[in-house]
């Protein structure tokens, strides 16, 4: 079939709206008509170097149109959100940790199915697709069943897509990995969409001190509305000192969403004894360094992928909290028509929107 797609024809160039050819779903795949797709920082990172022609997009939600013969979890007409995929057979998948699947990069970032094929072609050329189990910058997606999560049709489909990546990453880092006890202190470094989801999760967990740290004062102001008890402007002098003033014994937990070496160092060094740092952001720095004494006294630094989530369990839990008003991430969303994908990308890059979602 033909689908409308926002294709990346050259790395680093704007997306180009065009028609692509999409194969029918294979026995273990699902054809989804996309209703809305979020724009995530990871799309923008990969747009800089992914082999082209490429189809990115990995926060899609929509309606099932067709299923392969082996698919049992969804039927045509079902509402679904999509998330990362995994092999389903390695020891880590079988023990409930698909975010750490041994084939994670191969099945999510190779641009191909595991057998090397692609479901998407453009003018006869093979398109690198199957990005994070989907490639949903398109009107239709052929996704493996493992990447597809049934969601209640009473939930708002247009806001469901970012739960498959950004919101699950931030919330899962707190709820699945750090698991703060009520009364804990936590600092969240970087309060874009991922960081705000972490702030809300910390608030749901009963954290008493929740510090938002960012260079963007508008984002800091917004973070207060999501449960941050204090804000630290990290562009100002002495951010580390401000953190130490707020929690002199050191934080129980910190989360870094920035992937920036200087921020990571400040975050880890803000921990108290037995403190736990969650590193959940993909950012510009390739290394991190800190005074080695800052991880003495039982401190832990954990790298976390996709909130360590089991999407089929965790996404419906978050969406139900959202439907009940307790995980109000929709306040962060700005909607753009799909045709305005490049405007949405510019808004994400400039930080002028919390979360951009493209609608069809
Ligand atoms: Zn696996
Ligand atoms: Zn993402």
From TrEMBL:
<dbReference type="InterPro" id="IPR036291">
    <property type="entry name" value="NAD(P)-bd_dom_sf"/>
</dbReference>
<keyword id="KW-0862">Zinc</keyword>
<keyword id="KW-0560">Oxidoreductase</keyword>
<protein>
    <submittedName>
        <fullName>NAD(P)-dependent alcohol dehydrogenase</fullName>
    </submittedName>
</protein>
<dbReference type="InterPro" id="IPR013154">
    <property type="entry name" value="ADH-like_N"/>
</dbReference>
<dbReference type="InterPro" id="IPR002328">
    <property type="entry name" value="ADH_Zn_CS"/>
</dbReference>
<dbReference type="InterPro" id="IPR020843">
    <property type="entry name" value="ER"/>
</dbReference>
<dbReference type="Pfam" id="PF08240">
    <property type="entry name" value="ADH_N"/>
</dbReference>
<feature type="domain" description="Enoyl reductase (ER)">
    <location>
        <begin position="12"/>
        <end position="358"/>
    </location>
</feature>
<dbReference type="InterPro" id="IPR011032">
    <property type="entry name" value="GroES-like_sf"/>
</dbReference>
<comment type="similarity">
    <text>Belongs to the zinc-containing alcohol dehydrogenase family.</text>
</comment>
<keyword id="KW-0520">NAD</keyword>
<keyword id="KW-0479">Metal-binding</keyword>
<dbReference type="InterPro" id="IPR013149">
    <property type="entry name" value="ADH-like_C"/>
</dbReference>
<dbReference type="Pfam" id="PF00107">
    <property type="entry name" value="ADH_zinc_N"/>
</dbReference>
